[in-house]
Amino acid sequence: MSKILIVEDEETIADLEKDYLELSGFQVEVATDGETGLKRAMEGDFDLFILDLMLPGVDGFDICRQIRSEKNTPIIMVSAKKDDIDKIRGLGLGADDYMTKPFSPSELVARVKAHLARYDRLTGSAREVNKVIEIRGLKIDTTARRVWVNGEEKNFTTKEFDLLTFLAGHPNHVYTKEELFREIWDMESIGDIATVTVHIKKIREKIEMDTSNPQYIETIWGVGYRFKV
Fold this sequence. Notes:
Radius of gyration: 18 Å
Largest sheet: 5 strands, parallel
Helix content: 40-55%
Number of helices: 8
Number of strands: 12
């Protein structure tokens, strides 16, 4: 049974999320302040985190940052703030998804299931023989989930690695942002394609010598992206 930690200071919202997730077969723990949430996140063995952005004590950004420093566990951030800058910041810190309140509990459950299913498939691949993609100084070990650029290892979040591996595994194919969102996040974009843009930017910062003139991930203006070989 997958175990989920909800960090949410509005108890009515936390209870509603908990009820729906438990009805769907998940084990759920709730923390109602940032300090407690951070402590449980770092010490506990959870399969997914749901973090509210505005929390007393330690906010969701700080919790996300510290989780990502040690774990690749899926993170869904939720907030009543609709500003793109908060979404971009959250995704940039390594969150896998960002939901704006109010949202339906059934949508939350669907996203939780999608992220857990993808993470299970990816971590389960460790039993397979290592498959490595090597292109012009870029080396991707798709089984060990490690990346090197000119011999130097780079650290990637779960979704950054998934997106890079997918594009590198389908070279010269142009994908729209909507197609990439469906492929990597296992759900319809619902107009939220900024997620893809943020992740492409973070990947380029790690693999490109010159982000203004990328040699790997090329922007096809008005269409999307393709991995050049």
